[in-house]
Amino acid sequence: MTRNLIDFVDITHKEFDELYRLCADIMKKPDKYKNVCVGKVLANLFYEPSTRTNLSFRTAMYKLGGSVIGFSDPGSSSVAKGESLKDTIVMMSNYADLIVIRNPMEGAARAASLYSRVPVINAGDGGHLHPTQTLADLTTIRMHTGGIKNLNVGICGDLMNGRTVHSLIKALSGFPDIRFYFISPRELKIPDYIRYFLDSNKQKYIEITSLEATVSSLDVLYMTRIQRERFDSESEYERHRHAYILTSGKLSDAKSSLLIMHPLPRVDEISVDVDNDPRALYFAQARYGMYIRMALIMTMLKNAPAEPRETEVGGAACVNPRCVSMFEKYLPNLTYEREGRVFCEYCDKEI
Ligand code: NCD
Fold first, then answer.
1. 278 and 136 both lie in a single domain
2. How far apart are CA 336 and CA 351, in angstroms?
3. In terms of residue numbers, what domain contains 270?
4. Whether residues 59 and 96 fall in one domain
5. Which ligand 1 atom is nearest residue 123's CA?
6. For the chain, how many structural domains are there in total?
7. Residue 328 lies inside a defined structural domain of this protein
8. Which end of the chain is more exposed for a tag (fewer CB within 10 A), N or C?
């Protein structure tokens, strides 16, 4: 199993399959697993608000018999005194066997993994990626379709800033016969690095602005909220906040087998009258999220401790103002090259 889970593509299909099977077994026989993590400690470092991800990781660890340390308000930790990400991570990897981190800086989890002696799990890095939500999403799709293949997948809302969207797109692109319908306001289309990823994988997608025009073709409809905290001004957010509202009326032509998903929290993009529709899976999706995180914790704790990664200083500096390398100045510039183009390894922006 991958040492760190920073991006969903760190996990192979075979590994996802193993996690899924373990998750299904945990759901069937939870008692069998109640002591498997006794004596193990999970550090849950939440620098940004969270309900599901934070609490589902905590509950997952408790249900496995392990313990949880960490913070959900960085203001109550030494971060408020100006401690660097590096120092916090070096410290935490002295205490814990596994680190889960959510941070508003893009690439923060990758940066943390450079300094950690224990595996690091990305629980959301700014508007970049959120691979464990993708685990919950793929688990939901697989549980309700029997297999992740040959699907028309509509993803609707703030596709520019929604990190769950980016991880889900990257993950689903690896499965056979997936056709994407990206439904968003023109200003909130998928970011360039995701477009580049799709194009270089020859993945089929169309970009549209109308939800109504698309809904009847879909097998999966993944709604997302407009990401208020990522906008520079409140007025910009207000302009988009009511862009899409799914109501039961809009589902009248949808397939009876449609999976209606949402990573949650919902603001008003799914009307409450949809909640009783048997196709609405978003609360079940959150439940699966906890079980697949139990499987992930168990699996990653089997990784042998490793030395932090050696990095060479050099390479081009990132220009993305939201990249972790802009804030944590000691970080080495890390880049990778694809087809002659250079990208930042923390935030994936082209340099
Ligand atoms: C998402 C997130 O934090 O990115 N929530 C979650 O983890 N389930 C989605 C969101 O905040 O819109």
1. yes
2. 10
3. 131-288
4. yes
5. 7
6. 2
7. no
8. C
Which atom of ligand 1 is least distant from the CA of 136? Answer: 8
The rounded distance, in Å, linking the Cα atoms of 196 and 351 is 13
Separation of 49 CA from ligand 1 center, angstroms?
9
* Residue 148 sits in the same domain as residue 217: yes
Which residues, other chains included, contact 5 with Cβ-Cβ below 8 Å and sequence gap of 6+? 11, 119, 120, 121, 122, 131, 132, 296, 300
Phi, psi values for residue 182, rounded to 5°: -95, 115
Beta bridge partners of 203: none
Distance, in Å, from the CA atom of 260 to the CA atom of 220, rounded to the nearest integer, reads 6
| 1 within some domain | no
Assign 45 to helix, strand or coil: strand
- Please spell the DSSP secondary structure of 133-170, one letter per residue: HHHHHHHHHHHHHSSS-SEEEEEES-TTT-HHHHHHHH
As a whole number of angstroms, the distance between CA 119 and CA 93 comes to 9
Average pLDDT of the residues of the chain: 94
In this structure, are 140 and 262 located in the same domain? yes
Question: Which stretches of the chain drop beneath a pLDDT of 50?
Answer: none
Structure tokens at 298: 């168990």
At 194, which CATH number? 3.40.50.1370
What pLDDT score does 307 carry? 66
Query: Looking at ligand 1, which residue's alpha carbon is closest to its atom 1?
Result: 263
